[in-house]
Amino acid sequence: MDNHAIAETLEEIATLLELSGENPFKVRAYANGARALETLTEDLDTLIAQGKLKGHQGIGQGLADAITQLRQEGKLAFLEELRASLPPGLMEILKIPGLGPKKVRALWQLLEITDLVKLTEACESGRVAELKGFGAKTQDNILAGIRNREAYGRRHLWLGVQSIVGGILTGLRALPDVERAEAAGSFRRARETVGDLDFIVASENPKPIMDWFVAQSGVQEVTAHGETKSSVRLADGLQADLRVVPAEQFFFALHHFTGSKDHNVAMRQRALSRGLSMSEWGLTPKDPKAKVPVAASEEDVFRALGLDWIPPELREGQGEIEAAESGKLPHLVRYEDIRGCFHNHTTASDGRATLEQMTAAAEAEGWEYFSIADHSRSSAYANGLDEARLLAQIDEIAKLNASGRFKVRVLSGSEVDILKDGSLDFDDALLAKLDVVVASVHAAMTLDEDAMTARIIRALEHPRVHILGHLTGRLLLEREPYRVNIAKIVDCAAANSKCIELNTNPRRLDMDWSHWRRAAEKGVLCAINPDAHRTEQFVFVRAGTFQARKGWLTADQVLNTKPLAELQRWLRR
To answer: Most Cβ neighbours (<10 Å): which of 138, 366, 408, 479?
Structure first.
């Protein structure tokens, strides 16, 4: 196991121990061990070989032995015994928002609840509300969380399926009978979540392609195996469909199965107005003597209907056809336009990489700049920085820049909590010392819409705030957004020349793509931010750029496409 996998295993052990009612000090030891391993700068194998793992960053003998065994053998008998000692359904219950190990243990011990079915029954009968520390509101929230989980279980995060799509496409394109292969559906349109996967292949010999598709590794179930269409069920219930068509139909089929439904309906209506019938098979003239349009590219499909090619991200039936007809489609932002980002965490708060490690990774991305934005003091759960620690970090960043070790410019910043009344977690004098201030809501998320909106507006009106972080607080497939009037927030940002973040953590993607077009039209800049807590999460920026494109954003509407000098002028305004 590598360091990250071992750390995740230690975190699982800490959770299982807490569920078991183990001594809190032992629970904390494993949790702290996971954090120590994630932030380890020394080589783990060297520490083990030299016998120096024990005592390093507070690691005791038992924990050192466990880490060594996981590193060398990839398994731990103690963990297997711990898993076997607990009802397996408890881990599913833990996935319901608001239920931590202590509450799940209480449900198990006091009401004998060991799975979601029993939890649902206990909530519906009112027994959960009667428990100390729960109450009617918690019971209602649990039921809502169960309902959401059932609905979310049918969908998957876009980034989570990207590697699966890439693997299948690589396999398809390697087959000798495949002329072309592409992914379609909601994945190609870069929807935040994906229900199933669609693949389109051009070939004159479908059988060996179908046979490969249903026999590929990772297939849990074959639900259909036909001559030109097959369907399989992959891990986590993800369905994948494959259609093989003749080469002359490929781009019509690719367009059709990319969708969306609203886009396709509008395209068919446009075809009819031109005397054509449109389907996945092609364009058929009503006049049998008319020339049948052919397509050697997807651009030809649109050209046949008098349109510019529409990027897949825009095909949602929201005015893209009218824009394509009038030549007014935007030149969408690309990842290559990005020069840096502003919302990143280090080990100073809840990140898993040091300042130097994050800086080296940012330089490897080829960025011109990036900003550290560790949590502020009120986020105690995330080891938020107080004034003294933040001042020390500002000084550390200044020294790192002055050292000349890295070409990338490190900006000092903070993800400052927006408190319940809309005030900020630090005073103006401290905020003035920062290059970048990202203001975010992390607590008191149950305010009504008016109160939450007023709270965020007050923060946006603060002269030291540059960027509003993850506007709605949503966690895709886990937690609904809190109630807030997004239109009013956008108007406030426009009036105060503030930037709104597109948080590209795959579970957030917040602000949602559907609001960006209006925001940009009002002059609000977007900051495409990864909210990175470890170096490998910088990839979120690349994936999140698709969401910016989906919001019709161009490079000049994105803050982190500005050159450093221009960015610094914007920040100092």
So the answer is: 408
